[in-house]
Amino acid sequence: MATGLIFGFIALAIAGGVAISYVAGSAAVLAFVATGFGNYLAILPQRIFSQIDVFTFLSMPLFILAGELMTRGGVTRALIDLAMLMVGRLKGGLGYVNISASVFLAGVSGSAVADAAATTRTLVPAMVDRGYRPDFAAALTAASCVIGPIIPPSIVMIFYGALMNVSVAAMFAGGIVPGLLMAVFLFAYNFWAAKREGHPGGAGVELPPVWPTLTRAVPALLIPIVIVGGIVFGVVTPTEAAALAVAITVILVLVYRLLDRSRPAEALRHTISEGSRAVESAVMLTGSIFMILFAAAIFGYLVGIMQVPQMIAETVTALDLSATSYFLIASLIMFAAGMVMDVTMALVLMVPVLIPAAVTAGADPVHVGVVSCLNLTLGLISPPFGGILMVVSAASRVSYLRLSLTILPFLGVQVALLLLLILVPDLTLAVPRLVGLID
């Protein structure tokens, strides 16, 4: 009865437009009372603050700020031009450009939604003008943006590492091969689609000028080298790497403005103006993320008190499930949760409950972490409530229903990769082992 009332409250609150963080927090407090653990509420604030008082979390707002600065300062445009220069004249060239741009952007922002907003406004109109169907262009853009949180740096991996006490450096290294494989899988689908639908491409396609493109794009590629190399080889912490990313981005944006404008004073004023708006956006997004973490920490505390992870682990042992078998079941549950929940919320609610049993059964924590992050990120392009689908639909003016149907083949390709990564852990663990981050 009490459980039904709580779920009824959640449904009504969400239907009424209440923010998900408030819904989750209120429902968790009600769950304490309903399960007879109301006396624990007295120490709840201390427990919540101790759970989110993690040094690694400081890197999140800095990576978010770096992404905002790049989008507003022309760095994103420079990376898209570089992708166009490299693969723009292949048949279906703009599709390859779309995917390549997401790979480049993944190395500097780590946010799928931010990449979606930037690439949709730039690439979808260009693809439609060249003869691509609007829904195909929008669906490819949405699918390729999932690469962002997998190739380091990754905000969702920072969440996971801090939440489950797993090395963020090892997680970042583990995301490199899966992220590149996702690009390869999407390249293969784009190749097939270009042949089937007769997408444009060839020697007659206009390319951006070589030297100005390289002058702008190559320095931008220094950002992922600094971030990934510094973290993986232990030179800097994720938080220090995020600060370096912001500093390099600010310098690049200022240089781009000086190249575009003849008067340095005007370029500086414009950079400061864009920077202030980027800071404002980053602060708002960071605040909303921490509200979700705060609310989810309440639920996580209750799950710990009720010893749910231990009960799941005992069930796995009793059923004699292998680590792979259990992880496949857990992945299916997480995928279903990602279809209807925010990624951050799904991560902090589902991972502490489901993942400890997989590690206890013998799965590698880094492999499980990277694959779980990819799994939950796919929820961003999964109907009915995919966050990336909503952003791309609004920016491209393709109806949400039509986009949801067109995305399904792309989603199928990415789910196939997810299954491959679950069954072949060495694909994820190769780079972390190579650089000595795991045994």
Automatic annotation (TrEMBL):
Pfam families: DctM
Membrane-protein topology: Multi-pass membrane protein
Gene Ontology cellular component annotations, sorted alphabetically: plasma membrane
Entry-linked InterPro entries: DctM, TRAP_DctM
Signal peptide, first to last residue: none
Domain TRAP C4-dicarboxylate transport system permease DctM subunit: start-end pairs: 8-426
Subunit structure: The complex comprises the extracytoplasmic solute receptor protein and the two transmembrane proteins.
Family to which this protein belongs: Belongs to the TRAP transporter large permease family.
Full protein name: TRAP transporter large permease protein
Species for this entry: Pseudooceanicola batsensis (strain ATCC BAA-863 / DSM 15984 / KCTC 12145 / HTCC2597) (Oceanicola batsensis)
